[in-house]
Design a protein that fits this description.
about 50% helix, 11 strands, two-stranded antiparallel sheet, eight-stranded parallel beta barrel, about 475 residues, alpha/beta, 20 helices, globular
Length: about 475
Amino acid sequence: MLVFDTPDALQDSLALFEAAGPDGKVAVRNPALFRNEVVDGLVWTAVFGKPAVREAARRAIRDAAASLAILPASILPLYQAIGRREVSGFTVPALNLRMLTYDSARAAFRAARAIDARALIFEIARSEMGYTDQRPAEYACVVLGAAIKESWSGPVFVQGDHYQANPKKFKEDPEKEMKALEALIAESIPAGFFQIDVDTSTLVDLSRPTLPEQQETNCRMTARLVESIRRHEPKEMPVSIGGEIGEVGKHNTTPDEFRAYIDGLQNRIGETPGISKVSIQTGSSHGGVVGPDGSIVRVAIDFGLIRTVSKIAREEYGNAGTVQHGASTLPAEYFGSFPDHDCVEVHLATDFQNTVFDHPSLPLPLKREVERWVFESPAADRKPGETDAQFLYRNRKLAIGKYKERFWNLPMGTREAIAASLEKKFAFLFEKLRIAGTRETVEKRVRPVAVSAAAAANAGFVRDDEAGD
C-alpha cells in the first residue's frame, strides 16, 4: 500500500498512476490501475495522515470519485416518490459503520452490486462520531473510497444519523446545545452528507396534558434545525431530512402523536420544505436488550403500528413514512416484515460492531486488551446489578476510537475474513429488505450532480467534540 507523507508526494503519485487532472484536480484515466495501486493508500492517508496531506487525500478521493461518476447524492426524490405512492415494495437499509469502516463499506458495496441494488444508505450518528473518532469529512471520504475500490457507479447516500439534542445539556443551556447541532450540520453538508436525521425527541415532555404540548419543544427545535439545513444545503442538492417523535427504547408511538408532531412542525416551518420521513418507537432499543450472559433478548416489534403510521404519513402528508431504529440485533425472521408493513428505512448498527469484536479471526490478545481497557475506562458506566457480560457488551463501543488504527492495521487475512462475514450479513439483510434490482428505480429519480466541497472552508463550523455516547 502506498503511503503519502506530503501533498507533493501525493500529487506525484497521482501523476504517475494516470490520475492527475487539470487545475490540480484528480481525474482518473485508468480506473483499474487507480483501484489496484492508489485508492487504499489514499483512504489510509485520509484517515491517519498528518493534517496537510490528510486534507489533500480527502480532496483527491472526492475528485477521483466524481471523475468515475461516483457522487454523494440526496435520496429525497426517491422518498418523495414513495410519499406519492409511486414506488413501494422495499425498505432502505441505513448502515452505521463504526469499525473497520473501509472494509465494511467495501463489503456492503459488493453485496449491493451483486443484486443490482442502489437503495442503501451509509450513516453515522452524532454520538458515534465521538466514540469512534470519525468526523463527517473522514466518514464520507472513506465510503467514497470504498465505492471506488469496488467499482461502484452512480449515487452514494451518506447520512447524518441521530443529530440529537442532549437533554441534560439542553436543560443547562438550550442555545449552546442547539448551536452545537447547527455547527454539526454546517460541517456535514459540505462533506457530502445530503441526508440528515435530526432528533429532538429527547425533549418531548410527557408530563404535559395534551399531545401538542408534549411535542411542542420537539416541534420547535426540529423546525429550527430544518431551517438550518435548508440554509446550508446546495441549491442543486436538497437534503433529505428525517425527524423523530419518541426516543428509541421508550414507550411506543401512537398515530395521534405522529399527527401532533407533523402538524406542530409544519405550523412552524410554513412554506419551508420539511421532513421526508419520521422515526417512531415500535418496541426496539439501540444495541438490543442484553441478558445477564451478554446475549440479546428477543423483543416484539409492533409491525401494525409501522403500517398504520406509514399509511397516515403517505395519505395525509405526502411523507415517505416511518423509520425503524435499533434493528440490527432483531431476530432474523423479522426483517422481511419491514417491507411488508411499508417501513421506508431501517437503521442497522450494533450487529456489525459485534461481528468485528466477536469474530474468531480477531487476535485474542487485542480482544483482551480492549476488554481490559473498557473495564478500566472512566467513561464506562455500570448499572446496578449488571453482570460483567452486560457491562462489556454495552460499553465496548467506547474503545472503538482509541483502538481504531490498531484495527485498521490488522493483517490483511484477518480483515478479509471479517469483511467476508460482514458481506454475508449485508447480503442477507439486503435480500430480506428487498432492495435487489433497485438500481433502475433509484437512477430514474435520483440524478446526482457534482457538488463542490470547497464550501467546507467557508462553513464556519465549530467542532462538536463533546458529542455524547
